[in-house]
Design goal:
The chain has 574 residues and is an alpha/beta fold. It binds zinc ion (ZN).
Length: 574
C-alpha cells in the first residue's frame, strides 16, 4: 500500500514537472544573450548565450536557443555583444597582507608623486577625521628618486593619521599627526635594523621610518580598528570581485578571520587556502601536520554547516600547505646554482635545510596536504623538485606545486613534467623587474631561464597564473596582458624580450581559470563556462578582438557573478 501511494506521488510530481515550459526542466533563473562568450571549455570554446539555474550553468548555445528557454520569471541580461569569460582564479594571493591597499590607498605603479598626493587627499575626504589612512606601495624610484616627507602628507591630509608602506615593505612614510599619535620622537628607541630618518640640518624627523622603525606605530590609538583583519579581508574581496576574480589560492594562513567573513555573508570569492607551518620548526613535522589536519577538519565542518555552501558551493577550504625555501632575487636571497652576476660574493642562506624541507614534504603528504613551495632561484627550484622526487604524493592526491620559479634550468623544466609538479607563476614579476634588476642579478646568459611560461606549457607542465598581490597588481587583465607582450625596460628602452616565452590570450586565460581550478578539488565545479558548473562569470566592457593583444590591460570588468549571483557591482552584500 505504502509503495502505491509513493508511486502515485511520483506520477503526480512527473506530471507537474511536465506542465512547466520546456518539458521536464523548469525555466532558468537567468539567461545571458548576445554575448561573445569565451568558455575555456574545449568542447564549446565560443558561444553567444547561456542559461543559469540554481546557481549553475544550465545550458550554453546560441541566443535563439537560450532565449527559447526563458520563462516568466527568468531574468535576462542582453550583453550587447561584449565578451564574457569564466570567473577568474588567481593562483597566488595574500589577501590579508594586501588589505591595507584595499581599505586605504594604492599608489603602486604610479610614477608622479603629485598623483600620490591627489589620491591621498581624495581618500581623506571619504573618511572621518582621525581615522588612519594606510596602504601605500609607493616607489620613489619611479618618481623623482627622492624619499617623500611628512610635510607632503600634512599638506593633503592634516587631520588624518597617515602611514604608508613602500612597494618593498622596507620603508614607512608617516605624517605629523601619525607621529604625534604614536608618541614618536627623533630619539625613540628602535630595534636593530630599524632607523628613524632625521634631517641632518634641522634634526627633525622627515617622516620616513626604515624597517623595524615602522613598528613604532603599531600601538597607536585607532590603529587596531584600522587594521581589523575581518574588515581588511572584506575590502580585499570587494576589490577582487571588481576585477573579475571569483576564486583565489590564498596564502594568508588565516582561518577564523575568513570564517567570520563567510558568516557575515561577505565571502564572495572562493578561497583555496594554504596552511603554513610555524616559521621556526619546533616540533616534529608529523606533529605539525597532525595539528594542521585537525584544524582543516574543524574548518571543513564550519564551512559545510553554512547554508551558502549548498547554494553557492564551497567558499573556503584549507586545501594545501605552503612552504618557503628561499628569498628573492632583488635582495640576493634567492638560492642560485652559480653566483649572482652583480654580487658574486653574496652568501645566500636557505630558509630551511634540505633535510627539513624533505621531512616537511613527507609529513604533509602523510596527512594528505598537497604542497606548494616558494622557490625563486634555480637552485631553490632544484631542491624542491628533489624533495618531491623523494616523497611523491599518494595516488589520487592533487598535484604539488612550486611558486614563482623565476629562474629554472631546462633540465628542471623536464623534471616538473616527469614528477607531475605544477608551475605557479606571476607574470608581472617578469615585466616589472627584468629590466629593473633581474638582468643585473643573473646576467644575460641566464636570462633565457627566466620566467619560462611557454617552456612550461610546451613541456606539458600545468601552468597556474596569479598575481602574488600585494607585490604586484591584483588585476588579472594586467597580468594576462603581461604574458602576451613580455615587455620590460632593457637598456632604457621598453621592449619585448624572449618573445618565445610569451603566451597567447587563450593560454593566459586558461592559466587564470581552469588551470587554477585543476589545483583544487573544484576542477569539475568551476574554471570554465560549462553546463553543470557553478555560474561564476565576468562581463567585460567591450568585445575582445579575435587576436587579443596588449590592449587587454585597458579593458575592465562591468559585472562579476558568483554562482549566478551578481557580486560586482555590489547589490546583494549588506
Ligand atoms: Zn607570495
Amino acid at each position: 500500500m505504502r509503495k502505491l501511494i509513493s508511486g502515485l506521488l511520483l506520477a503526480f510530481l512527473f506530471l507537474l514537472a511536465c506542465s512547466t515550459k520546456q518539458g521536464s526542466s523548469p525555466a532558468p533563473d537567468l539567461i545571458v544573450i548576445n554575448a561573445d562568450v569565451r568558455t575555456v571549455d574545449s568542447t564549446t570554446p565560443r558561444a553567444e548565450a547561456f542559461a543559469v539555474s540554481g546557481g549553475k550553468f544550465a545550458a550554453i548555445g546560441s541566443t535563439d536557443e537560450i532565449q527559447a528557454m526563458a520563462g516568466e520569471d527568468t531574468q535576462t541580461i542582453d550583453a550587447g555583444g561584449v565578451t564574457i569569460i569564466p570567473g577568474l582564479i588567481d593562483g597566488h594571493t595574500h589577501l590579508l597582507m594586501g588589505s591595507g591597499l584595499a581599505t586605504g590607498v594604492d599608489l603602486s605603479e604610479i610614477e608622479d608623486n603629485s598623483e600620490w598626493l591627489r589620491i591621498i587627499r581624495e581618500k581623506a575626504q571619504t573618511l572621518p577625521e582621525g581615522v588612519w589612512i594606510l596602504g601605500g606601495a609607493w616607489d620613489h624610484t619611479l618618481s623623482d628618486g627622492i624619499l617623500p616627507t611628512k610635510e607632503m602628507l600634512d599638506s593633503v591630509a592634516p587631520d588624518h593619521p597617515v602611514l604608508l608602506q613602500d612597494i618593498d615593505g622596507h620603508s614607512a612614510w608617516a605624517n605629523s599627526l601619525a607621529i604625534e599619535l604614536a608618541g614618536i620622537t627623533a630619539d625613540s628607541p628602535v630595534s636593530p635594523g630599524g632607523e628613524i630618518i632625521v634631517d641632518p640640518d634641522s634634526g627633525d624627523m622627515t617622516g620616513i621610518f626604515l624597517e623595524s622603525a615602522g613598528g613604532l606605530f603599531s600601538g597607536a590609538p585607532g590603529m587596531a580598528d584600522a587594521t581589523n583583519p575581518v574588515a581588511g579581508i572584506e575590502a580585499a574581496i570587494t576589490l577582487a570581485n571588481s576585477l573579475g576574480i571569483t576564486a583565489v589560492h590564498d596564502m594568508s594562513n588565516s582561518f577564523d578571520e575568513f570564517l567570520n567573513v563567510l558568516d557575515n555573508g561577505n565571502l564572495t570569492v572562493r578561497i583555496w587556502q594554504g596552511a603554513r607551518p610555524p616559521l621556526v620548526i619546533d616540533r616534529s613535522p608529523a606533529d605539525i601536520y597532525a595539528a594542521m589536519a585537525a584544524e582543516r577538519e574543524r574548518v571543513r565542518q564550519h564551512v559545510s554547516a553554512n547554508p551558502q555552501t549548498e547554494s553557492m558551493g564551497t567558499l573556503f577550504e584549507i586545501g594545501y600547505t605552503k612552504l618557503i625555501v628561499d628569498g628573492v632575487l632583488s635582495t640576493y636571497t634567492a638560492l642560485m646554482k652559480a653566483p649572482y652576476s652583480d654580487n658574486p660574493d653574496a652568501v645566500v642562506e636557505a630558509f630551511v635545510t634540505r633535510a627539513q624541507l624533505n621531512a616537511m614534504i613527507a609529513a604533509a603528504h602523510d596527512y594528505d596536504f598537497p604542497v606548494a613551495v616558494h622557490a625563486i632561484g634555480d637552485e631553490g627550484v632544484s631542491w624542491v623538485l628533489d624533495g618531491f622526487a623523494e616523497s611523491p604524493g599518494k595516488a589520487g592526491m592533487l598535484s604539488d606545486r612550486i611558486e614563482h620559479i623565476e629562474i629554472v634550468t631546462p633540465d628542471d623544466v623536464q623534471r616538473f613534467e616527469a614528477l607531475g609538479i605544477a608551475a605557479s607563476m606571476q607574470p608581472h614579476h617578469a615585466t616589472c623587474c627584468v629590466g629593473n634588476y633581474v638582468i643585473d642579478r643573473v646576467g644575460r646568459d641566464r636570462l633565457p631561464n627566466a620566467y619560462v611560461w611557454r617552456s612550461m606549457l610546451d613541456t606539458k607542465v600545468p601552468l597556474v597564473l596569479g598575481s602574488d598581490w600585494p607585490t604586484s597588481p591584483l588585476n588579472p587583465l594586467i597580468q594576462m596582458s603581461d604574458t602576451i607582450h613580455r615587455e620590460t625596460r632593457i637598456d632604457d628602452v621598453v621592449r619585448s624580450w624572449d618573445e618565445g616565452n610569451a603566451l597567447t590570450f587563450e593560454e593566459a586565460l586558461y592559466g587564470y581559470t581552469q588551470a587554477g581550478a585543476n589545483m583544487t578539488t573544484w576542477s569539475n565545479e568551476i574554471g570554465s563556462i560549462s553546463v553543470g558548473k557553478w555560474a561564476d562569470f565576468v562581463i567585460l566592457d567591450e568585445k575582445l578582438p579575435e587576436t587579443v593583444g596588449r590592449a587587454l590591460e585597458n579593458r575592465y570588468v562591468t559585472a562579476t557573478y558568483l554562482a549566478g549571483t551578481q557580486v560586482y557591482p555590489e547589490t546583494t552584500k549588506e
